[in-house]
Design brief:
mainly beta, five-stranded mixed beta barrel, 1 helix, 6 strands, 7% helix, 49% strand
């Protein structure tokens, strides 16, 4: 039976990236990104929710992200979810989900966008609506 582990995100970078190298010399760049969602409640008030993701890019993509990704930039990330576990300084086992990026696109006006701007519209706050995405 076939399976699929795929995640697509559009959001803002939470901080400048950090590039490291594995013991074998493979570059890896990590950064965080936030996605925002607004929901109108039954009383008419708007509830805003933010989800944070830890992103890891490898090899050539890592070098590109380290060079062009900066805090606040709008990016598209396509990849797979990966579980990471480690022992903390307190002796406790910790687990987190992170995105192993296959593709990172820079959506800010200064960056390179694969999708033509007329295919994506934004609301007054600049949020991209799911119906506006061409996929």
């Amino acid at each position: 039976m076939a399976s699929l582990n795929k995640i697509l995100l559009i959001g803002n970078v939470g901080g400048d990236p950090e590039m490291r190298f594995t013991p074998s010399g493979v570059p890896v760049t990590t950064f965080t990104m936030a996605t925002n969602r607004s929901t109108t409640l039954s009383d008419g008030s708007v509830k805003k929710e933010t989800e944070w993701f830890r992103i890891s890019a490898w090899r050539k993509q890592a070098e590109t992200c380290n060079q062009f990704v900066t805090k606040g930039k709008l990016v598209y990330v396509e990849g797979s979810l990966r579980t990471r576990t480690w022992d903390g300084k307190d002796g406790q086992k910790h687990t987190s989900l992170e995105v192993n990026a296959d593709r990172v696109l820079f959506l800010d006006k200064q960056g390179v966008a694969v999708l033509p701007p007329e295919e994506i519209s934004t609301d007054e706050e600049g949020d991209i609506e799911p119906d506006d995405l061409p996929f």
